Amino acid sequence: MAFRMRLRKEAQIHKRREVRSEVAEIATNRILQYLNAGMTERIPEFGRVESFIQLVKEADRLRYQLRSATSEWVMHSLVKRDGRVKYQSDAPAFLCRYRFQDESIQALKNQYDRVLQQLHWVTSHYRWTPAVRSNDFMFLSRIDLWAGDLAELTMMPTPFDIARHVPPEDGSPESLTDERTSEKLPPQDLQSWLWGWENWSVHWLFGHVEKQIMDRFRRCNSCNSWFYAGTDRQAFCSETCRKKHFSRSTEFKEKRRKYMIKYRRDERKREERARDAAKTQVSATSRSSKDRSAR
Q1: pLDDT tens for residues 195-228?
Q2: What percent helix, strand, coil does the chain show, rounded to 5?
Q3: Are 202 and 123 in contact (CB under 8 A)?
Q4: What is the pLDDT of residues 135-183, one digit of tens each?
Q5: Residue 173 falls inside a structural domain
Q6: Is the Cβ–Cβ distance between 99 and 88 less than 8 Å?
């Protein structure tokens, strides 16, 4: 029984890893590669999606701090009406409706509300229409529709395909005669694609918000690029960045210094043993020669 339970648990862990790997591939290919292309300031759609991710992560950080500071007494205080916290029913539905007597907690709550208001501003211009979709006569499901072409994102241009239609930061015209130029995304379809991409991205990211897993979107500690964490402890987008960052750390330098001291000490010992062995061989050869001469 214990063996079967262990096999079942290992299978579940393997399945979760596969699912996270698939989601990471979607996040990278459909969202993060565009945010890491350096065009978030020149393309508003990229900038808004990046702002959405940053604001949700900041809101979640503040939410956790508020919960840690109040979870043990807030509900009891509301029931007892002891004045430590009050419920504001007239506050907007997307804000925290508590008002705290403690100034430090209230200041944290005000900061939390400001982030939520910024998030509301970012998301307020999206207009999605729910519809019922038939999945090849197999079952019915919900689908959200929005204006703009390529809502399903069946066509994924590369960041270069997009960048060649966007003026550079210095405002000079950008050449479209590069041999790498692709016809995957004609200039007239760029705005329509960007609008569809932005709506799809935010709609997809809301699934992570609801599951409380937005923390998987992170900045690399070395190159500052966006990546989707495959594990809870992952802090770098690649093994190259991990090694590069670690090589500059004080811990690595100290470890390297100790390693080189030991390496040089061992190298001297090896050289001394080699010299001793050479001397011993020369001495043995000399004695052997003298013995042959004496005979």
Answers
A1: 888 999 999 999 999 999 999 999 999 899 999 9
A2: 60, 10, 30
A3: yes
A4: 878 889 888 888 765 445 556 778 877 877 776 655 554 443 344 444 5
A5: yes
A6: yes
Where does a domain end: 219, 238, 257?
Answer: 238
Same domain, 233 and 264: no
Q: Domain for residue 244, yes or no?
A: no
- Tell me the two tokens of residue 92: 């907007």
Q: What is the DSSP string of 28-59?
A: IIIIIHHHTTT-TTT-HHHHHHHHHHHHHHHH
Instruction: Identify the domain boundary among 193, 218, 238.
Output: 238
Q: How many residues does the chain have?
A: 295
Segments forming the whole domain that contains residue 283: 249-295
Cβ–Cβ < 8 Å for 118, 128: no
DSSP string, 204-256: HHHHHHHHT-GGGEEE-TTT--EEE-SSTT---SSHHHHHHHHHTSHHHHHHH
Rounded CA-CA distance 267/290 in Å is 35
291 and 190 belong to one structural domain: no
* pLDDT for the residue 105: 94
Number of domains in the chain: 2
Phi/psi of residue 272, each to 5°?
Answer: -65, -40
For 55, 141, 209, 251, 258, the CA distances from 61, given in Å and listed in that order, are: 10, 33, 13, 29, 39
Asked if residue 232 and residue 253 are part of one domain, the reply reads no
Condensed to tens digits (0 to 9), the pLDDT of residues 38-49 reads 888 889 999 999
pTM of the model: 0.76
**197 and 261 part of one domain:** no
| pLDDT tens for each residue of 241-264 | 988 888 877 777 778 778 888 888
